[in-house]
Amino acid sequence: MPALLLSLPMLLSRLAWADDVSILAMDEFEGASTEAIGSEDYVTVGYQTMVKELGATIANKPMAPGETLGISGFNIGFSTTFSFIRTGTIDGTNPTGWDMAAEDEVPSTYLYVPWVTVRKGLPLSIEVGANAGWIGASHTGVFGAWGRWGIVEGYRRLPDLSVQLGYAGYVGNDELELGVMDMSATLGYTLPFGSTKGINQASFAPYVSIGQVTMHAAPRGDLSRTGLEGRVTEVSGFKKGDGFDKSFAPLQVGGGFRIVSGEFTATLAGTYVPNVVPTVSMGFGFTY
Q1: Residue 268: pLDDT over 80
Q2: Does a structural domain hold residue 279?
Q3: What is the H or E stretch that residue 166 is in?
Q4: How many angstroms separate the Cα of 85 from the Cα of each of 25, 46, 82, 181?
Q5: Considering the entire predicted model, what is its pTM?
Q6: Residue 288 falls inside a structural domain
Q7: Where are the alpha helices (DSSP H) in the chain?
Q8: pLDDT greater than 60 at residue 192
Q9: Is the pLDDT of residue 184 over 80?
């Protein structure tokens, strides 16, 4: 499994090269200007849909059950996230934001993000973590960080419950600024098992997560020389931000399971942001 996770992004990149997101490329499609048509501008709709799908992809994922690492715990992990974006057409006629923003106008139907993650346990059932990811087959990446607090954990007759606050930022793109804050609660239960009664070297921990991802995005550069000015604008799920739109602060539900054997951990998790995008994440790591 570790070898598969590390080699999969390399294999996928040979199959399809996804151009970096280019806001300026949205000014035309198939050699024609993307002029506004009708009351609902498909460029604006495509841009906003693309931002939501990219934001949901780069947001911190629930890759751990409800329990925290403990005061002496440390974990390093490697994972890959896949999200299944909408490409082709919005309404059977007009292109999606991904099609317009791809310089070759042939985007992949999915995004994949390989991650490296570190987590450290602290006193009072607090845990902090950080990760770095690469948007597959592009020149862009992601940096994120979070803090978790285990409200209830370690009771054999009660599930573990933790809450998390984090932030992830999209980096490396000169034409798009994007950041995502996540707030969530995770509920799970750890089931130890082993070959000898009373001596458990392994465990299985299923969990569910629910929360909110709040996005802020803005085009970079001068759009005044294009037909995009006033159509591709700053958007935000933060009420005090410019371009506030509550649809940029959607609910996120998720869940998965973690298997521990000695120091080795393996995790499979999924998230779904209604009306935006589903993601699947798989990873492995080592806890000390």
Answers
A1: yes
A2: no
A3: strand 160-171
A4: 19, 12, 10, 20
A5: 0.90
A6: no
A7: 2-15, 42-58, 97-101
A8: yes
A9: yes
